[in-house]
Specification:
The structure is a homotetramer. Chain A has twelve helices and eleven strands. The longest helix of chain A is centred in the middle third of the chain and has 22 residues.
Chain lengths: 342, 342, 342, 342
């Protein structure tokens, strides 16, 4: 078979390992051929392809980013988008099937294209770990590790100077990165989108920590909302271009804490460092296995399926059933972490 | 309740995080008191205890080793061992229940003591990830990460000098560390106890890699056996002074490869670096959750139980049912990795 | 002798290693006693001391922060400040001499106190490496390493998405961290306070990189100024609530680049992660040696002196001669790096 | 000009950064052309060349190993060696001058070839930091960092189990890696080739540490010799197959300590992990600057010169004057470290 691969959406450590896993398995076991589709769906819509053989994937398991490039293009938009045009592109290249590596939007698009008769298999990609169909997604472990290292570093400064440190991590809609890095880093409060808190509650935790003679460390997801302060959010959130402002919540909270508690407070926004660079060993193994399993799904002609992690096994599930709901942090996981607060 | 905690057997990153999780949950939620039992079962047998309060566990989630010390003492041996003597020690201290953190041997002892009426809950600890009752055990992720970093480093030297690098990792009876670090590091062969191979097969992989213009990287578990060379193994253990040789299998294989293929070959034995030092974020989260769950098991009076990871959840299982079989690398996981060999 | 030690000003990896080096050398070689002065000059002014013996410095060489705490208090201010009051505090504790670890301000204060008869020796501390009297100061190497790791990570995202990444590092008045991390990370432009540039020049570099098919990576010191845009800088400091904006120059430049070149651009502000956490091996060695040499200076009764690195040697120099001028990046070092721009 | 570059001898982090620095400076400033000489002097003798343009050095500053390959070939040996044959190879390729990156042997060869009229400039390379002509050589800082991380990890196991850990680091003739990593890691004894010690002295340090309730950590250079035990050393080199034993001194000392002190002792040999993989930021900066300065030396037609670090400056010195003496650890640096022993 001739298989096209594309990577879509934001960066995520492990994308290259997925590509390598798929290519090595396909070439060695099934004598497949591969074509790289550049810059996500855009390359498919525009017919922008690149050679992708066994040599191209050499040494890729540890390399961050994606050699295929990425974009946020929607394959149904634009003059050249849509299933018919895409099928023409595939036919012109002799591509039999596509492996689409991407998040919720990409998987939804993959489902629609499958419904239109295009042969696609998905690999879930979300740094935020917010896809319900998989226990963990590659990139998440690396992001948590990077955030934890930053928390470790910021803690020593907090303690030397008697300061409160507010560390903003990724997580627009779900709090998994904050939950795990906060637990790993020994945070005194973890603020996540699923659990709005009042500034009063936060200050109570902060003062409790200070009263025990320690320096408060707070980890906050970028998507956390202060309870009862929708007003503050509505202002803070927009920049001159009417887009959500970078930084945001951490920089909003830190001065509030300082003002109310008198404890010098500083915000640090970890930003893109969480999603670039070499993947952790965990993510390399997971991504490699997912890439290899995508070939199994193609062999089994399970179009519209995606690969996922369940326990220690890689399974093939239906995109339709697997997506649709955001995997939020459940109450019991938050309660478990909250035992360590304050 | 007054709870004693002990750590037994070899070092493992995350031991301190288990202790911290248990103490913080017990103190904060159930008003429990804690006593540290020094140096594993030896402290229990000898009555060697230490204070263990909330302050003692400060900052422990990221700290390697165990503040309680460890040993390989068997609680049933010696003049002061056995359930009756141990119960006296516990009574003298007013200890109601014990959390025993250790491997197969510790869990088996915990079961026997439970059968004798002592109230114990176990937390599984194995750097090798060889306990069947848990998807993963804390410390394993850190060991894989350290081994993977070493493989990454050794690879550049291999390629600059056209050498074959043989990297010996931990794994006396099972090959999990080799399997995961080898996949993560892009090894060209992974040699594990579960899958004996002939030196001819290994050399075939090595030559195949060389013929593709690359430098072979081989990861081998310390417990790997060369098929058809039991003789070599029986000799390998002795040096010129008739003492057991350190290193072992890696140093046995490397010169054999060099002799048969003509490719300059070097062995590196990672040794104890794999089991010391700060745990990865993954292991900190897992260990903290296990420690907290051990308190739940005590609250539920599930004596003779242990905590374990199933998928993303921490469960409480019976030690009796959970132990007994070594969790070896199954054939399908080896086959999956073998696609990447050569 | 009885020696007091204080750490003053911002956090810097290696402070604890200086303390450990001084205490171990003093205790072991000269039978000195030590007293910790809490929170910089404030502890001296307020008489806030802590025990500091050999046991207190155990394991400190690798620990970030300072066990003594720090502050920005000026010893000449306040009701209890000034040489006379300080001398009283020292007499009350029986302290013979002080080791003051701090930056330009601390060293200037140490000089004034020396002039007033107080026995002080200084250890230079500046994460920015801006003190002329020493080749390098501890903490700088760690900061450069952390910034370089961040650049490595951000680069993969830049390349996968065809973006321009602007990374803001520390350096209020001098560009050493930007210069070294930018060279190490392969930046396409390094923007430092010593070398104002126009936005047009920056965009020229950016476009040149893009035209070669690569993703531009720009490292900028927090103190960099855009040539001909003083207006922008004076405004940049205020947000919608009229508070000083965090981030600053990186977040100012990135949208300018995007607007002028059409290349999607993102800013990341590394912030406090650069000055917390475990020191690099280089900084541990340097800090330990400086701490030990401070004891030599005290033994030699060289009051008003400080220890410094010259080549591979630690020397004792006069604070008066050593300070006063900021050590800026010289033109030839900037020109050397600029060969790699664009 | 057309410039050939070769890398010779053992692996060393920063080789690629030297190549990149030289090529970028030569191409951009002087319009030089470059040719890669494969596998050290062997490529020159055999006429094995590779393209080396600006594109080839992309992203190399952080990459371990050498894209040119390396070997230990002596250019004066073999049928095709010697100045006349080499000059023919250079003429055939139109190469005007050579940059030779290597250790003592390479620099000596470069001098002899210079004397024979071949135009060569040297860049000193020694992971052991044993070249007198330069304050530090690239790769050394990375090796020290890796060794220090390993010591940090091994220490926690030592303390949890009350063991003595013996860590063998590189350093065949000089003890710089042991000295710096031992100081950084807080070792209780540092054993280097320049300072033979008796096993009795070592055991005295070990027992002193144990008596203070701590776990002894000993760092030993591979070239260290036990005073009064030449016999042991002469035997240690051979295993049961009469081949040189790997490991060596660490594995010799650990059981001796255990036998004499009763303290369980373990040896770990760090081996090749110290010289592979990504260079530290310090080494990237140093290596890049040395590579660029080599172009300056060529422009100045200073044949037979080499580039070196003096303080913070890169200087051009004569190979003849710069080499010849091993840079050993001086007595005062050893005494300084020894204050921290025991």
């Amino acid at each position: 078979m001739k298989i096209g691969i594309l990577t879509s959406g934001g960066d995520c450590p492990g994308l290259n390992a997925v590509i390598r896993g798929a290519v090595l398995k396909g070439v060695r076991i099934h004598d497949d051929e591969f074509v790289g589709i550049r810059n996500g769906w855009r390359g498919l819509v525009d017919g922008d392809f690149m050679a992708l053989d066994r040599h191209s994937v050499r040494g890729l398991s540890k390399q961050g980013g994606t050699i295929l490039g990425s974009s946020r293009t929607n394959p149904f938009e634009g003059e050249h988008g849509g299933p018919e045009n895409i099928q023409k592109r595939l036919d012109a290249q002799g591509i039999d099937a596509i492996i689409a590596i991407g998040g919720e939007g990409t998987l939804a698009a993959a489902q629609r294209l499958t419904d239109a008769g295009i042969k696609i298999v998905g690999v879930p990609k979300t740094i935020d770990n917010d896809l319900a169909a998989t226990d963990y997604s590659f990139g998440f472990d690396t992001a948590v590790e990077i955030a934890t290292e930053a928390i470790d570093r910021l803690r020593t400064t907090a303690e030397s100077h008697g300061r409160c440190m507010v560390i903003e991590v990724m997580g627009r809609h779900v709090g998994w990165i904050a939950l795990h890095s906060g637990m790993a880093g020994g945070a005194h409060a973890i603020l996540i989108p699923e659990q709005p808190q009042t500034i009063e509650q936060i200050c109570e935790w902060v003062e409790h920590v200070r009263d025990r003679g320690r320096a408060p460390v707070i980890v906050v997801s970028e998507g956390f909302l202060l309870a009862g302060m929708e007003e503050a959010h509505s202002h803070k959130g927009l920049d001159a271009f009417n887009r959500p402002r970078l930084g945001g919540i951490g920089e909003l909270i830190a001065p509030m804490i300082e003002e109310r508690t008198g404890i010098e407070s500083r915000a640090t926004v970890l930003g893109h460092t969480q999603r670039g660079g070499a993947p952790s060993a965990y993510d390399r193994v997971l991504a490699t296995r997912l890439g290899m399993a995508a070939i199994d799904a193609i062999q089994a002609e399970q179009w519209g399926s995606m690969v996922s992690l369940k326990g220690t096994e890689i399974e093939i599930v239906s995109i339709k059933e697997a997506t649709g709901g955001l995997k939020t942090v459940p109450q019991d996981r938050y309660d478990e972490a909250a035992v360590l607060f304050g």
